[in-house]
Amino acid sequence: MNRNTVRWIVAVLMLLALAFGLSCPSIVEAEGAKLPLDFTVGGSKTDKTDWEYDGKIPVGYKDDTIEVTSEKGSVVLPAESKRKKNVKHETWVVRIKIKDASQLRTAVSKDTYKGRGQASAEDIAKSKNAVAAMNGDFFKYENDVGYVVRQGELVRDASDNTRVVFDMLLVDSEGDFHVIPSADTAKVEAFTEETLTPEGRTVLDTFNLGPALILDGEKQDIASSEAAKQGKYQWKYPQQRIALVQTGTLEYAIVEVYGKTDGTAGMTLEEFTDLILEKCPDAITAYNFDGGGSTNLMLNGKKIHKTPGLREITDIIYFASAKE
User: Which residue in 186, 190, 228, 288 has its CB near the most CB atoms, within 10 A?
Assistant: First the structure.
């Protein structure tokens, strides 16, 4: 083989290598954006320079793997009291875009699923470098009910306990939301086998509370939900509230309304659903989480406002950076 032929072969190989490298940046980027499913592991630390602040309060963040924006608003509603005074309620909408479903994460108090131990939501969020976070479904406190999956791990299967029936929010391994009404083991397993497995998806997380407020972009008949029928989740009277919403592929929102914990000020679930549709007209699925003193909405591990009657909780849902 003469020298010119060798040079030609080397040149072709170099061009092929260069072309392959240029054609596959998304593969490298995707791998860099994936976080381990281990629930004790948090996200990447963020740089202060990537944050936007309103005074000392963090209100937005952006890097190559996650973007978070927030919007503060207000609404005036009558209080459920003898004086019937109007009350101005603070509202917040936090929108989140992530690169990979692994950046939607859960964490528990004391890094253990066992017991009923509780902790400050801020402490849990800070320990996991949470960019945006909210309270979970208090599943450690209700330790004898529900079909519970966290970070891909089946933690508990107690759905045969009919004392409490939930509309379950199921998050799949691609970060998409699904709701299983009156969920039990048979329904979850059937849904997984019929819907997720054929698409190569698995169950990432399940949340047992509800009810579902919006499905396929449509407001639901909340009063007919199993959670509402039980009367356990204050759906009929005004309350401080919070919901998790999917608005697109790997795009989400957390919507919160400031209220009181005694049922005298805030929103009913009907009113709250209307607020979500107003603030997030792109909402695909919206799911109600525990309100009242459990309500927590945090950016960079810090509450963005004071919560009346705030108490310690057992778990959070959070969105994390995966930057290298």
Answer: 288
**Count of the separate structural domains present in the chain:** 1
276 located within any domain: yes
Q: Which domain holds residue 206?
A: 33-320
- CA dist 277 and 245 (Å) reads 10
In degrees to the nearest 10, what's the CA dihedral of 42, 68, 173, 155?
A: 50
Rounded distance between C-alpha atoms, residue 56 and residue 59, angstroms: 9
Segment 225-278, tens digit of pLDDT: 777 777 656 677 788 899 999 999 999 999 999 887 777 788 889 999 999 999
Those residues whose C-beta lies under 8 Å from the C-beta of residue 204, and which sit 6 or more positions away, are: 37, 101, 104, 149, 151, 152, 171, 172, 173, 175
Residue type at 113 in one-letter notation: Y
Q: Kindly state whether residue 13 falls inside one of the protein's structural domains.
A: no
Structure pTM?
0.87
CB atoms within 10 A of CB 270: 15
Question: Who has greater pLDDT, 312 or 83?
Answer: 312
Closest CA to 304 of 130, 100, 149, 107: 130
Rounded-to-integer distance, Cα 203 and Cα 149, Å: 7
Of 298, 285, 227, nearest to 256 by C-alpha is: 298
